[in-house]
């Protein structure tokens, strides 16, 4: 196989794919519950914070070109202590499978196939995810490129379908609930960004010229995500009003159901969901990929292929437990997941950067 | 050139009788093996034999050889005794354009079965192999499976030499190369690898040669054999090698830095590497003006998606997601389906099957009866089945549109692949609704993304995205804007600057 | 790679055998509901639900093989239950197909039901994924079962007919085009109150067979509105008051008003266009105040005055202003004095302008609204007399 290379454009679209799905689907509802109609502001704040920590992650990578976080951890801390980093990353990815699956299953099951069993959704998505992982990261990255196209189409469709209901009065007044609640809400968007940051921590070494402008590319990716998500945040706020948005688990579907073109196309949310499913499956693939890579590191294997199936089983089991019960799912989504995601994704790069500065010699040795 | 089927090195000796026995023992008593005895310069003590295969040779060329050997020496007053080497005969007597010495009997036999004439003269240890190949060829016709309106009408034939000449006539570039290979232990099929030396993707010719050299097979009857033996994704239903009967397509591919593989005895030429999207592009796109070309290319993209997805989407909507159908349409569909006894999935499968059946039957039937099949088929399926309440009128429309769309894809072989892909998506969406549809579609997409064709990603330039190649992707931009070759070519610049015509500039 | 594809396909095949056809229903196995009526059941605390179910083969004529043939495009049925969902399930006792709600055009509530509160109805119809969000919602004082099963002259499906009425509503401009989307938004909103259209059965249709009994056929009329407060219906608005409301909620731009001729007892019709309504909130003495300005242009579309309109132009302008102002003030009176319900969405305007003050009085908005001072100013310009030239006609 030729050497794996991901172009900068692919990396940007990977970041967009990684965040977009959950942030428009599930996060906006949470944001509306906390910040009311300022959810777009919270999105914006979250984007800025995400960009900052993406840059920190890049600073770590810059010190050891060609190594991902797991390899850097091993180089800095030695063989056994380095496994702690792998364990942390593993925890992150398994935990992230919860919100990802919540997004996927609740979109499809609740709105389209309420009679299909939950396991069917998990199994089929994990099968496709595993298939993608077997084909390798490059294929997944190419998929992200197509996903970007689909996201674009999706945004066009929702804009066409919703602008006639657009009511700016629903977005005003700005900061009614005050800045603190907007900042608090941005934490939930941070949790979405966290997935992109951790993905970058794994795949950044494969990106072309990552050591030179990986930070810039990563930040561009987050900014682009912020933009495409902002469209939804504004539309959900203006069309549905914050009160309605906050009532729904999957608020973007609520918006999609409202969208219509003329009187003939009363509903076309299925087209949107079909477009939406590439990014979702991409997220699942990355989740499996991250889990399998960190597991193989944990067990000292060279290739992650043998770990894909165990990773799928782990993710499947975990998410079955989370997704199966709506109350537990929402509890996890709002009370547990951000407090796992944000500390890991924002803390790990900072800690690693600190270690890399202190133990500069070791890193150079390994590099 | 390996001859590993029992006959070891057979050399010619000085005695004609021994030599002729050797040849006879190899060729046996086939009726088409012709032995023509003659006397060199008409002198009885200089006997000779011509070997050739009836039907494989041009008899006028044989006449010419015999005339040279028997009559010409006398006219030139040559003494046959002075012609004591095969080379002397070849250079002094014979006027055939292609004649070469042959010291090895197995080469001689090989020449005979390829349609050459082997001349043996008593007392000489070498034979002369004269090229006399000539058999009835099909005339040059327009390729029946790849029609177009504007553009050249010629198509490849079964003769490899005239096929390569088609290309040579189009590209008078000394850098155009044809490398020869022979594949097939029994058929000894000629294969030519065509490329333009300073354009072709680096290392591609070596790779093609290596893959062809690795083939160990007894027979190559069609380029399809080669295709299956060298492709990158042998298990995939996608074809990663483009095949065409049109010389202009091959010439265009060579000029983009690709490699064409000519196989003798078939008009179908292979082109590598191949992007998936090439199958949707037609030569007309480039010959008609770009507005028209772009429009019809987009139509073909639509046709591609329809033929791949329409039945699945219909089945999915009608059996799972009724809320997505606009109400008035839903009522129409429901009223059409009121008496249909089958579930939609089964109905769709039956109709698709019936359609494929009609297509296949129409293809296999002798031409005069083929018409009857289509009339009966369309009457039965279009009219009677609906009247009998077996299928709904909507399903007939869906299947018909799908069928028509699949014929709009210029490459027949890849439209077959799409036909195949339709079924897994159809079944998955009929069983699991949107979930099955999305999952199966993206599994296929992933698969298509993962395969390569001779080192090039199959879905390029869409993914991985290549900006400069978008000029010839969804839209066919004007010729004066398509100034770049695909990026794998050695020299990617194909036009000068500012080719957009500006009438009146520079002149008064 | 081979093995992986094989694994994928074999596991998919295994899956199919386990759970094949989950939730699969053919479209012709559904009882497609196009209108639903909700009223109180006979027993207290129960709900009676009437559904208008379409019979596709008769609603669409013959497509494909012959089927149907009784000629009735709809089938209407009644069911009772403890809750809406219970009633729907009970519908399944005698409806032979699965009742399917996604193509529902119309929800009609009986007045008594609406006065008891619509929370369960809003919740049910927004919780279910099948239902589309632009279903029309209306209130009637007649029997909803009768309303939904009254066949109109032009459309085959009554539900669709009412939907068409709603679509062309802006021409008449006498009822809000209330749908589920608006209802939910207004219902959940802290600041505004929902308003629903009113459907009435009136004897207006003329039978072709017995034309002498003119106007004996009952038809569904869309005019007027029902006012809600805190999830309960509190009263009706007349068509004229509703016209006033539409300036606020739907930015009504045009409509017909009839004014008396200044010189005689005859009438003159004016079509006003480009109506623009501005609401200017202010806050004084702990109280919100609103100034409402309406500007409109108008055309004379019918005149019985028999005089040059140029001469009476100022008079008819004033008359139009009076009429429009009267409509708005009548509406304000009803909303502020009688119903104490802010159906005009004045709260949104106030909240956007004065977020800090809103925080203080938002919780007691309905009383604040009732006490608010509202000034109405209308400015109308008669610009055109359409085809005729009035200057030279005398």
Series of secondary-structure elements of chain A, N-terminal to C-terminal: HHHHHHHHHHHHH
Instruction: Report, as a whole number of angstroms, the end-to-end distance of chain A.
Output: 23 Å
Largest sheet of chain A: none
Mean pLDDT of chain A: 87
Radius of gyration of chain B: 30 Å
Unreliable parts of chain B:
1-7
Q: Strand arrangement, largest sheet of chain B?
A: 1-2-4-5-3
Per the CATH scheme, the topology name of chain A is Amino acid/polyamine transporter I
Helix content of chain A: over 70%
Oligomeric category: heterotrimer
- Percent range for β-strand residues of chain B: 5-15%
Count of structural domains of chain A: 1
Question: Based on DSSP secondary structure assignment, what is the total number of beta strands of chain B?
Answer: 12
Q: Find the biggest chain interface.
A: B-C, 37 and 39 residues
What distinguishing features does this structure have?
heterotrimer, A: mainly alpha, Amino acid/polyamine transporter I, C: 394 residues, alpha/beta, GMP Synthetase, Chain A, domain 3, 2 domains, 9-stranded mixed beta sheet, 4-stranded mixed beta sheet, 31% strand
